[in-house]
Amino acid sequence: MLFNWRLFAVNHQKISSLHINNICCCKRRASLERLKPHLPLGRNYSSLPGVIGNDIKSLHSIISPPIAKIRNIGIMAHIDAGKTTTTERILYYSGYTRSLGDVDDGDTVTDFMAQERERGITIQSAAVTFDWKGYRVNLIDTPGHVDFTLEVERCLRVLDGAVAVFDASAGVEAQTLTVWKQADKYNIPRICFLNKMDKTGASFKYAVESIREKLKAKPLLLQLPIGEAKTFKGLVDVISKEKLLWNPSSDDGKDFERKPLLELIDPELLKETTEARNALIEQLQTAIHRVTVAQTAVPVLCGSALKNKGIQPLLDAITMYLPSPEERNYEFLQWYKSDLCALAFKVLHDKQRGPLVFMRIYSGTVKPQLAIHNINGNCTERISRLLLPFADQHVEIPSLTAGNIALTVGLKHTATGDTIVSSKSSALAAAHRAKREGEKKHGKNNEAERLLLAGVEIPEPVFFCTIEPPSVAKQPELDHALKCLQREDPSLKVKLDPDSGQTVLCGMGELHIEIIHDRIKREYGLETYLGPLQVAYRETILNTVRATDTLDRTLGDKRHLVTIELEASPTETSSVMPVIENAENVSEDRLKVFQEAIENGIHSACLQGPLLGSPVQDVAITLHSLIVLPGTSTTMISACVSRCVQKALKKADKQVLEPLMNLEVTVTREYLSPVLADLAQRRGNIQEIQTRQDNKVVVGFVPLAEIMGYSTVLRTITSGSATFALELSSYQAMNPQDQRTLLSQRSGFAKGF
Hints:
By secondary structure, this protein is of the alpha+beta class. It is globular and about 100 Å long.
């Protein structure tokens, strides 16, 4: 359903008015006709970015607002803390939607996938662009489920600030810690929003203390609640000493009033507010903004998104306290100057338009039909169309400048984490500047490495299973679907089992693989069959061994001869990739020409260990001797090295490593005993039992193999009252008895899964 902007301009009073200031339609007609919002049939939207009341803004301010007025923020939290509901209220009060979406009703804007609406959870991060009081806000709603941690990671990489949403009855929870650490990693300034103040058990004091104690952050209390749980009716603005009271008869929360705190009416509340205010700041908003950007403290606000309380002040805080793009210090920008520099942080696949690439623009301008150079892929592509993202709806625009998040059409080879520049010559010029400056400052060229923007770290899968099409004829369709899904989701790995020829899916958890299976059926029309879900083990060695090998082969009239001697030994520190070293008697200069072939051979051998065919880690390979007949191909060298490493690994004492999960179970006191008894049977190691309000929180470690199907068991033994959170901790050695049992069970399965 396509609407023309001119049509919106004429009818803006009927449809919750348009945000384009005093445009003469006849002069702007050509520009406006290119800007077509793609709107859904099921929801009411208030036209285009920034529509508030009858205020009309210029076309230029909609497309390219001043960079100081841009806020790129994310909403992050533990699952079920209310991220998506908070986002829905933000969209409603900013004028984007004319009805309130609800997670339980399955009609939210940012949860637009069928699986998200059915399950009431966020799976993919959805980008939304809107205006609030003269500021352009690019907001991303992220998942809270541990299976989709990568979605959080890849959106945080391109944000300037974030809102951390907390359940006021629970405070800091397991996944809260994870996303907080991710935000620390990218130095993201944050605001805390204590949601669900109306919920039974809500405690403002407890939630604030958990932020201080568990996150080691310094809370700045900008608001205090008026009442808690059933008595929650509003909040106090600590800075202005005003009460914000929402009209109980208002259905949508738009109707609220500010009242000054008076000693005669609210003596206790005024005293509490004064104490909080005195402890807060000396220079009010400027100081709060400064300490927030410096990450020395976090502003704390409160409310209830579901009951429509506290969202408008949260929006004000986002624009006042979180940084604009120009306040963030990105060192690499000095090398690019005004040239284009952008980071592709997400890829979606659209059946009609092909790959859609989300990119954060750090410098320069992006336009349709622009040729760009991908530094990572060393290729040049052309952007055919440029869109402004509105969840799964998109507005086509003529250009976008630095600080914005763009959605591009036409880039067929760009992947998550790729650095985008205007041309190859631009990249070379930036490299030259970095090299010159690096040598001037440090005497070496370490700055040139920073030309590539740091991408997103892809976690290793912990589960795998086979996947089969309904017939052999459908295999190409399955391969195409998996290829598209992998571009969208880099944490999904697909490989071919060399022995059985079956396709193997590797994912981050049971839910992750279940969602992929469901998407193949819904989006690609394929009824696929999944094999049994299995844990992704790893292997290592326990002692040092030496091995030698010779490969002598004649192909045509050419002889290929390689003789190698190497040593495999366990590393002192954990390392997923093999550590490659040369013995003292080996000349590194002489081996330079063969270095890539040697590394390829070692990495290839470590992909499949001798016990289960699982990847080998925590291993160092030391090269002692390499003799190569002149004219021998690099392929033969790699093959010989790989065979020799495999020989060494087989000779060594071997150990299976299993994934160990951090587990946090929240349970009422009456069901604590059966939960502990069940975990003991699962080889669980309990670290501590915390008290959280009226509940107990069991914190410990449990092997992943023992936790499959745990949600069903936990629901049964606690009558559905308990919740749990899982996160990969590390890989640990199995004890000999468990290892023997595993090897016996897996002897019937083909190696290499």
